[in-house]
């Protein structure tokens, strides 16, 4: 059967920034549709933008993207190399953007597909302004990309976070302790809010709502009076107290460096200091980014991937694939540029959490 007509003949694909479950499912989605339906040539680029700077690339054949739907990580590797930032100590290329443009044209690419978070899609937008054709796919466990209702990776991390909160309940109860669990999310509270509600956290602290430790202490003491001798406190890594929120950025950084390794430790200590309760801190860390994607992330990543192949075929460049309600669409690549989608104060889940008696620290 003859291949369908396609504007794009050859494209490159890379994964950049922090990895997440679903990257391979998305790679498979875009590559399968692009090669089976349109017979496009696909160049896999290793380790994010680093592979374009160093020309570390290879042609991807169907066998390369077969059997990867359920695999965690990324078959292409990832890095946080920033093409528009100053060169790192170990980089011998002085002009990374020129190096990228040269590789792009040497490889004969019609378009570059970038799978990444805010930084990656912003870089994609800047490269599009340098004359490259770019298509972005929104991935991150943080769910903080403007222009899409959801990113892939979020749902899997949510499952992992929820399971951790579930597990902490029993040990917190056995020892009559307050256990503070820290989830990732960068500057946004999506993961902590969702996992906190799903896991029935007694307190949920997110960066969007600066907390007052006295409000938390009152809540925990009230629980104690009602016979609940344990509590689970879910803290986003970017959570901050009212005091921290009022500080200049550099003062906040200094304060944090002097007050424990991360948010969970600060909050656990503050709760102990005010209530005298026995507290423990648990940081879930990279577990949230590892392993096989959830069913929902496999579906979202596959759909984003095949939608990207359609954009390639139609020559609709400089767009980011996105989810709006139940529809997969695309927005201009300028939409996510330089922004962070945080939890709005009127988000329904904030009210839901309050309605079931969860303390949000304010
Ligand atoms: O953006 C995903 C994320 O896991 C954030 O939640 C976290 O703040 C950051 O990446 C960690 O980055 P790194 O992998 O560079 O340690």
From TrEMBL:
One of its GO terms (cellular component) is 6-phosphofructokinase complex. Its main location: cytoplasm. It catalyses: beta-D-fructose 6-phosphate + ATP = beta-D-fructose 1,6-bisphosphate + ADP + H(+). Its cofactor is Mg(2+). Pathway: Carbohydrate degradation; glycolysis; D-glyceraldehyde 3-phosphate and glycerone phosphate from D-glucose: step 3/4. One of its GO terms (biological process) is fructose 1,6-bisphosphate metabolic process. Residues 11-312 form the Phosphofructokinase domain. One of its GO terms (molecular function) is metal ion binding. Keywords: ATP-binding, Cytoplasm, Glycolysis, Kinase, Magnesium, Metal-binding, Nucleotide-binding, Transferase. The record marks 119 as: Important for substrate specificity. Substrate binds at residues 140-142, 177, 184-186, 237, 280, 286-289. ATP binds at residues 18, 80-81, 117-120. Mg(2+) binds at residue 118. It is found in: Cytoplasm. It is an enzyme of class 2 (transferase). Pfam families: PFK. InterPro entries: ATP_PFK, ATP_PFK_prok-type, Phosphofructokinase_dom, Phosphofructokinase_III, PKF_sf. The active site is at residue 142. Homodimer or homotetramer. Belongs to the phosphofructokinase type A (PFKA) family. Mixed-substrate PFK group III subfamily. NCBIfam families: PRK03202.1 (NF002872). Catalyzes the phosphorylation of D-fructose 6-phosphate to fructose 1,6-bisphosphate by ATP, the first committing step of glycolysis. This is ATP-dependent 6-phosphofructokinase.
